């Protein structure tokens, strides 16, 4: 692992923070290009994207802290240390969706579906880079295993599934799928819904290999949330699909 890239004077530059910044930059550039492709003012989208980034990080950190509250209750000074890792994707969604809806209604200039699609394309492009940061940081690790590609993380030296790298691979595949369906889109908002479905399916299965907080005897909290989000997204997709013309 390589949690600290280098020291700048007495300041430690964390790999997770750097890769998170790269993910945000890639997402912003991709969202800007998607906005231009749709004939939407890129400045409007960039303002929204930067707002969503800040709000998403805050929301994802809050949810992560709540999930891991026993640890943070004993270490409250670490709550704001987002550069050390620890963000919840679903926490970002909870904050970003209503915020994007409110912003899209500003002046009645844009449909929420277009804003959601642009945001989803940008998020899908940046996500793999964030997971590379998780691997370098040593967080979001997997369960112990004997597979040949297992990675021993410094905190205990036990060979584990490199679930961060699995996430990078799935993230690239999901981004490719979003680009594929973008050329076959039937209604505004379809890409955002598909992204939620793809992410939920990936997260549900990867949690069989990842160390995650339990939500009961059989599912992790991430799997329970994935089932909920995927179920709602599929219902919305079915309803919108039936009402959309090819």
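Sequence proposed for the structure above (246 residues):
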């Amino acid at each position: 692992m390589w949690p600290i890239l280098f020291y700048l004077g007495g300041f430690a530059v964390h790999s997770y923070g750097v890769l998170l910044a790269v993910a945000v930059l890639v997402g912003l550039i991709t969202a800007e290009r998607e906005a231009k492709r749709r004939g939407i003012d890129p400045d409007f989208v960039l303002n929204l994207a930067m707002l969503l980034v800040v709000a998403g990080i805050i929301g994802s950190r809050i949810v992560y802290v709540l999930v891991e509250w026993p640890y943070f209750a004993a270490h409250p000074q670490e709550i704001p240390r987002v550069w050390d890792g620890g963000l919840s994707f679903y926490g970002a969604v909870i904050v970003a969706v209503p915020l994007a809806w409110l912003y899209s209604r500003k002046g009645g200039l844009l449909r929420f579906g277009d804003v959601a699609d642009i945001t989803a394309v940008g998020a899908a492009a940046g996500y793999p880079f964030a997971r590379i940061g998780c691997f370098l940081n040593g967080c979001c690790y997997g369960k112990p295993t004997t597979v040949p590609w297992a990675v021993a993380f410094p905190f205990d030296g036990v060979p584990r599934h490199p679930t961060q790298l699995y996430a990078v691979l799935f993230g690239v595949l999901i981004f490719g799928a979003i680009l594929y369906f973008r050329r076959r889109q039937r209604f505004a908002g379809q890409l955002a819904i598909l992204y939620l479905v793809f992410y939920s399916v990936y997260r549900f299965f990867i949690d069989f290999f990842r160390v995650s907080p339990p939500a009961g005897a059989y599912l992790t909290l991430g799997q329970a949330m994935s089932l909920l989000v995927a179920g709602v997204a599929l219902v919305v997709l079915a309803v919108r699909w039936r009402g959309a013309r090819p």
